[in-house]
């Protein structure tokens, strides 16, 4: 059985740092392939990133073509994010195809990824995002960022791997989605947003952020929005970013500490993303 997937031509022996000049080349490096399970596992083991298939070589949500895999990252850095522990989970042991330690894994701080190859591809990006979000809901300890339509996954050279050999069927995916929607989780998540009134210096940015759905854009864009706010306001923009991002507890604050303002992402990036969702500057109205 062949799986529709896109594989980067760039072998990564470590993660690419934010703001690195190679990102443009990297985002254009994915090629659509039809691969067997073994070929996908070999690509991961050799350090080649993978993502969903794209209409054009540029990796962006608008270019989503189809996706035939879902994946979850477990980064708790304890026993619960080891390959052995995850392989014993009832759902994973029944539906997952393989598990591997990630590129960030250390023996004293384990991190693992579970790959679910699908019996049939998901043809619409909104349905792919919904399936990924519902799967995340099912596993509350997984990394919540693993849900956008063109999410890429770094390979992990010489990683530990366990082959389970299962495929996830669409009927099971639909059942998970139904349970997720009936749980009221979406409403609860939205209700948990921080109430924040932006000062005059941040009002234009706050208005733009109202148009950007934090849980619908890609994870890369989500981080870019945070970096753009940081580039303009520094620590003074943290509350604004946190009120928009709807992340896990301390997630935005921890990201904030890694930003040094030396990258190419600016507040113009934020405005550009907002415009894709219909936002206009007051001067343009």
Q: Can you give keywords for this protein?
A:
five-stranded antiparallel sheet; alpha+beta; 285 residues; single chain; globular
Summarize the structure.
With 285 residues, the protein is an alpha+beta fold. The protein is globular, with a radius of gyration of 19 Å. Helix content is 38%, strand content 16%.
Low confidence ranges: 187-192
Written as H for each helix and E for each strand, in order along the chain, the element string is: EHEHEEEHHEEHEHHHHHHH
Rg on CA atoms, Å: 19 Å
The overall average pLDDT, rounded, is 87
What about the largest sheet?
Answer: 5 strands, antiparallel
Helix and strand composition category: alpha+beta
The shape, in one word, is: globular
Report on the structure:
This protein is an alpha+beta fold. The chain folds into 2 domains: 3-182, no CATH class; 200-284. Helix content is 38%, strand content 16%. It contains 12 helices and 8 strands. It has helices at 23-27, 37-46, 83-87, 90-95, 125-138, 170-182, 185-191, 203-209, 219-233, 238-245, 251-258, 267-276, and strands at 3-8, 30-35, 50-51, 53-54, 64-74, 98-101, 112-122, 161-163. The protein has a 5-stranded antiparallel sheet, with helices on both faces. The chain has a 3-stranded antiparallel sheet with strand order 2-1-3, with helices on one face. It is globular and about 55 Å long. It starts with a strand and ends in a 9-residue tail after the last helix. 35% of the residues are buried.
């Amino acid at each position: 059985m062949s799986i529709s997937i896109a594989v980067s031509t760039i072998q990564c022996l470590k993660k690419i740092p934010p703001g690195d000049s190679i990102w443009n080349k990297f985002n254009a490096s994915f090629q659509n392939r039809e691969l067997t399970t073994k070929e996908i596992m070999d690509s991961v083991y050799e350090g080649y990133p993978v993502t969903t298939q794209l209409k054009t070589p540029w990796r962006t949500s608008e270019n989503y073509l189809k996706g035939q895999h879902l994946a979850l990252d477990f980064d708790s850095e304890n026993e619960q994010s080891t390959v052995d522990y995850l392989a014993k989970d009832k759902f994973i042991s029944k539906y997952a195809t393989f598990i591997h330690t990630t590129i960030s894994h250390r023996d004293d701080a384990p991190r693992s990824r579970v790959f679910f190859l699908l019996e049939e591809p998901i043809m619409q990006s909104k349905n792919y995002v919904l399936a990924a979000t519902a799967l995340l809901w099912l596993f509350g300890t997984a990394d919540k960022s693993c849900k956008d339509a063109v999410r890429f996954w770094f390979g992990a050279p010489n990683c530990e791997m366990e082959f389970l050999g299962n495929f996830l069927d669409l009927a099971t995916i639909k059942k998970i989605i139904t349970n997720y929607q009936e749980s009221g989780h979406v409403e609860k998540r939205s209700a948990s947003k921080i109430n924040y009134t932006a000062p005059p210096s941040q009002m234009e940015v706050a208005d733009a952020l109202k148009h950007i759905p934090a849980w619908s854009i890609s994870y890369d864009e989500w981080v870019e929005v945070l970096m753009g706010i940081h580039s303009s306001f520094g620590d003074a923009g943290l509350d604004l970013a946190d009120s928009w991002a709807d992340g896990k507890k301390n997630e935005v604050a921890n990201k904030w500490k890694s930003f040094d303002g030396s990258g190419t992402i600016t507040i113009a990036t934020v405005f550009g993303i907002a415009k894709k969702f219909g936002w206009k500057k007051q001067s343009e109205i």
